[in-house]
Task: structure prediction
Amino acid sequence: GVTGMEEILARVVAPLPTYETRDKSPPPPESNSLEFMHFYGSLDKEDKLGFLTKLSQDFGVDHTGVSELALRLLDAQLRDLVTILQIEDRLRYGLTPRYKQLLNHISRAEGGVKFLVDLRADVIEIISSKACEAPHIRDLNGTLKSLLSEWFSVGLLRLERITWQSPCEILQRISQYEAVHPIRNWTDLKRRVGPYRRCYAFTHAAMPGEPLVVLHVALTEDISDNIQSIVRELAALDFEEDVNKINAAIFYSISSTQAGLQGVELGNYLIKRVVRELQSEFPHMAQFSSLSPIPGFSSWLQGLLSQYKKEGRGSDLLSEQEWKEVEQATDSAPGSAAIEALRKLIATSEWMRSERLTRALEPALMRLCAWYLYGEKRRGYALNPVANFHLQNGASMWRLNWSADTSPRGVANSCGIMVNYRYFLNETSKNSALYLQNKDIAASEQVLGLVSQFQKSSKL
Ligand SMILES: CC(C)(COP(=O)(O)OP(=O)(O)O)[C@@H](O)C(=O)NCCC(N)=O
Result:
């Protein structure tokens, strides 16, 4: 109940020591941390929301104290620098939320770091579900994120290569966490860590046996243009890699496993770290690229077709000839009926069954997909989350691949198209800065060509 929460919080969230005694006060008993963790663990989702709201509101920053210090700082502007710096330091300390010490102490308890990672996952869920508008909960998220970013900085992470000899519990976790191309069975898993494959994970001493982010790599002769050649069912090859057939590293799946570490950029660091690892193992390797899905393209396209149907602008999406093919294949009248018919074909993946329709639609779907990846934005950045991830890392949108994923899921999600985000090593930091600051997308001639085809045909 509420009184229970109030009582617990007042007892275990020690008041912030005064500025003068900030380095002299003894740490609160570890029992406070253990009691907090135990109590929180016993709450259901509803109560967790109430508890975290109370923690962030009533045990955060002393706003009155801060505004008084701010006034004192203003008054001191004409004083000597030493005085000003002293008051600034008081202000800096005054902005420390009362609960921050408790979070620090919890991190030193057994299982405390994992507890805080999961606690932030709860906070993120509360914020994204808009379950409560309390602005203080964002402060709590910010404090947790900055603490976790320090504890999970690259220097404190361990790069582990996962092989068939890795402990079963790690292999089991790898197959459980694989979010992009689900692992079907032991044979599939063995293939993913076998010859011409690499699987790496970051782990942290505070969370033993827990892969924090997992990267799957295929070692190939050149940059892969389809996923079937990478994940198809094949008897696991037993012979060692033939180094002459290895010139490229294809990142075909990456998944972070801890929701509470969102924003800590582990995936980006893992890719960069693995590139260095592979360069030392294969000094001549010069091609590093992802082979990425394009989740959301199909549904975006269906939405676009509905919108253009309403506005009677079908001719802006497909050429005369392309519409003719659709009308014939679906026996529909020109105009909105044909648009609706095409929308249905995309929604049911029916178009894939007809050789003729596939050939007719390829140019249109490729230029629409190029526009979806390159032109569609959210707050100025790429709308597609996978594109945004790789572009933030400094990769360039290098090649769209037709019928790259012919699995039912691949056709349903992105009309079977996949994209290579290529990592030109001496350009990633420049590309990343240009993308993050100016929202410029680094793209190849092939992609830019498809985009300009779309713009010409739709007069965008
Ligand atoms: C793509 C991933 C690995 C990026 O993680 P990370 O680099 O830690 O980014 P962030 O979560 O810190 O923003 C992550 O967003 C993820 O697991 N996405 C779901 C699976 C996928 N590959 O899209």
About this structure: Strands lie at 157-161, 197-204, 213-220, 248-256, 287-290, 377-378, 381-382, 396-401, 418-422.
